[in-house]
Amino acid sequence: MNPKSTDIFGRLDWLTKFIKRLSGRVTALESGGTALTAVAHDATLTGNGTVVSPLAVANPAPTFVQSTFTPVLQTQSNCSIIFPSLVNYIRIGNTVYVWGMLDVSVIIDPGSWAFDMETPIASNFTEQSDASGVAVYDTSCKIYAIGGSSGKVTVENNNPTATSGFYSFSYIYKII
C-alpha cells in the first residue's frame, strides 16, 4: 500500500505494518481526523508517509566546506619574505584542517624564526592549544594558536640551524 494514498483505511493498514516493523519502539499512536501519526523514540511517521526524525533536528548534518585561501602573514622574527602558496582547508562541523606550503626566507641563515598566519575561518582562540600543527623543511616547526586572537596561528622554528626553503605545513583547530 502506498503511504500517500488518500484512502484512510489504506493508510491505516500501511501504518500498522510500519509500526509492527518498529518492533515495539512505538511510544504513541495518534489519530486526528484523516491524519495518522506514529511516534517512536527515534522517528515520527505521519499519515502522509513522511518520516520526521527528531535526531535530524537536534543533530543537523555537520557543515562541510572544502576550499583554498591565501593567508595574510606577519613576521615576528628573523624572516623577511614569506610567500604562501595557495593553502587548502577542509571544515567539518566546527573542526578545520589546514595544509599547504610556505617559502620562508630567513634573514640570518641559518637561524630560528617565527611569523603569524591568519586562519581560513576565524576562531576566538583563548590559549595556544586551541590550534596545533607542524611545518617541515630541513627542521620541524611548531604551529600554535595565538590566544586572544580572532583566528591567527604562530609558525615558530626555534632551531638555530633552520634555513630558508619551502616548508610544508598542516594544522588543525576548532572554531570557538
Describe, in short, the structure shown:
With 176 residues, the chain is mainly beta. It folds into 2 domains: 8-58, no CATH class; 64-174, Adenovirus Type 5 Fiber Protein (Receptor Binding Domain) (Sandwich), CATH 2.60.90.
Q: Radius of gyration over alpha carbons?
A: 27 Å
Provide a count of the helices.
2
> In total, how many beta strands?
14
Order of helices and strands: HEEEEHEEEEEEEEEE
Number of separate structural domains: 2
Low-confidence stretches: 26-40
Overall mean confidence score, pLDDT: 77
Our measurement of the CA-to-CA distance between the termini, rounded to an integer number of angstroms, reads 49 Å
Q: Could you please say which CATH topology of the largest domain applies here?
A: Adenovirus Type 5 Fiber Protein (Receptor Binding Domain)
Helix and strand composition category:
mainly beta
CATH architecture of the largest domain: Sandwich
State the helical fraction.
Answer: 10-25%
Strand content: over 45%
Largest sheet: 10 strands, antiparallel
Keywords:
176 residues, mainly beta, Adenovirus Type 5 Fiber Protein (Receptor Binding Domain), 2 domains, 10-stranded antiparallel sheet, 4-stranded antiparallel sheet, 2 helices
Tell me what you see in this structure:
By secondary structure, the chain is mainly β. It folds into two domains: 51 residues, no CATH class; 111 residues, Adenovirus Type 5 Fiber Protein (Receptor Binding Domain) (Sandwich), CATH 2.60.90. The longest helix is centred in the N-terminal third of the chain and has 14 residues. About 9% of the residues have low confidence.
